[in-house]
Amino acid sequence: MAVFYRSVKAGTFLVGASSTLLCLNQLNNNANSIILNESTRRDFYEDDDQITPIPGTVIPASASELEVLGPNKLVSGVSVRSPSVLENFFKSVRQESLNYYQNVENKFNELTDKYYTKEREVTSTISSLHDRREDLFPNSIYIVVGTLAGTIVARRRNILIRALSPLVFGLFSFAIFLPQTFENSKKLVWKLEQKNLPEFASRQKLAAEKVDSLVNDVEKTAGEGKRKIDSTIKDTRKLIADVTGLNIDQEVTKKGK
Q: Membrane-crossing residues (predicted)?
């Protein structure tokens, strides 16, 4: 009796376990079918941007994204996309930098050309001042000695004379020992005065003309005075000759003859 009871109990346990396994299997199949249906199900009003893509799938970019990324270009066999805004920015920066560099280069070349032109002018002017017939080496030493002599002569004078005396002695020595070079230098100074100080040059020219006119008047007056004196002397000698009967113009012979 006990054996029969145990057999019935074991059979009941096996039947219950089998039923439980069948129920679990059925629930698992239903769950899989629900998941598959939900994964393939799509709502008509669902937004495309909110769909999560399956890993490994390639979604093409939209027109707005392609416009932002810019056109596709091949650079050394590599596809490159760059935004047009970024390209325009760097292009403008590069163009501005290039323009600035070109302006700086042009300005530098202009200043360099002006410097070399001025240097050639100064060199040619200085070389044209010296007369090749005049020796520079001994005569320059004489001019320096004359300038120092002016300093020595005016060492006990006031400050104005001490400043002007070396200049006067130096110019005087320059005019004596290098006369033609002095004339060329004087002409150059006159041209520079006319170019840079036209009013001063005109006044100086007017003063020089007045001095020349005064000198000419003095020379003319002296010449007229000399002619009057000569005429007076001649008339006096003639009067003496007429009164005394002596021939004053005749050379007096020596007593020995």
A: 159-178
Domain range summary for the chain, segments of one domain joined by +: 197-245
Q: Which of 178, 179, 204, 180 is nearest to 191 (CA)?
A: 204
Is residue 129 within 8 Å of residue 188, measured between CB atoms? yes
* Whether the Cβ atoms of residue 129 and residue 181 lie closer than 8 Å to each other: yes
> What is the pLDDT, as a whole number, of residue 37?
43
Please check whether residue 146 is in contact with residue 172, taking contact to mean a CB–CB distance below 8 angstroms.
Answer: yes
Backbone angles phi, psi at 112, to 5 degrees: -65, -45
Burial (CB count <10 Å: 0-12, 13-18, 19+), residue 129? middle
pTM recorded for the entire structure: 0.43
Tell the residue number behind the tokens 């002409």, with chain if given: 187
SS3 label, residue 255: coil
Distance from C-alpha of 74 to C-alpha of 63, rounded to nearest angstrom: 20
Beta bridge partners of 81: 72
Q: What angle do CA 103, 105, 111 make, to 5 degrees?
A: 100
Average pLDDT, consecutive stretches of 10 residues, N- to C-terminus, the chain (257 residues): 48 53 55 46 55 64 64 72 78 93 95 93 85 86 92 88 91 92 88 84 82 83 86 82 67 46
